[in-house]
Amino acid sequence: NFGAINWGTNAKFVKVEMDPAGGSNYTNVGVNQLMSVPYAMVADKVNMNSVNSSLNDDIVDNRFSNFAIYNSSDSKTYVFNSKTNTWNGQLGGSASSGYIIASNGNFAIYNSSDSKTYVFNYKTNTWNGQLGGSASSGYIIASNGNFAIYNSSDSKTYVFNSKTNTWSGQLGGSASSGYITASNGNFAIYNSSDSKTYVFNSKTNTWSGQLGGSASSGYITASNGDFAIYNSSDSKTYVFNSKTNTWSGQLGGSASSGYITSSSSN
């Protein structure tokens, strides 16, 4: 009964028996594994709109929502982690704009009492603090559950990598517009002291620098975690490839509108 077979689980095999004389005295001629299953048998299960499909419910079940609240009585921010079904508190945050920032289930809060930014990582269910940041615009930037903060006391940008649950710092960046650019959990910062652009790659948990770029509009372009910068000193455009963790340069491009165009693929 083909209709009673669950084609979505385990390997399936077909056994062939035949009688060359056309009778019922069958002889086994082989067993072969099915490398694909009959489409008609599984199509209705894959169709999310079908009453017979549980796929949509499975997807919804895998979604989650975490919540952060500020408690003015003890000056703490509490995060509810739906994965662990627990609350976890940390001094800092505020109900004022800029003090609590959310990204992919994680939260960053600024604690003005110790001048630190704390990140709650839902995967580890822990808080992790770093000097720097501010509730002012531009000091904390979020991308794909990672956070970049600027520390004006040492002129460094620090990135919290949720995959490694660590902070990593690099000279450069600023809270001013254009100095920190985010894309798919990676960050590019411009360091005006050495005229370089540095990219933090969350996959390798490292910084990589290249002469060129600027905080001015048009000098740093981001797409799918990769970055393109224009270097006016050698008239080249350099691209940082996050997959290979390398820079590659080519004569051409400009910071003027229309000279560098990105095209992302799925």
From TrEMBL:
Bulb-type lectin domain ranges (all copies): 76-202
Domain of life: Bacteria
PROSITE patterns in UniProt: BULB_LECTIN
InterPro entries: Bulb-type_lectin_dom, Gal_Oxase/kelch_b-propeller, WD40/YVTN_repeat-like_dom_sf
Protein name stated in the entry: Bulb-type lectin domain-containing protein
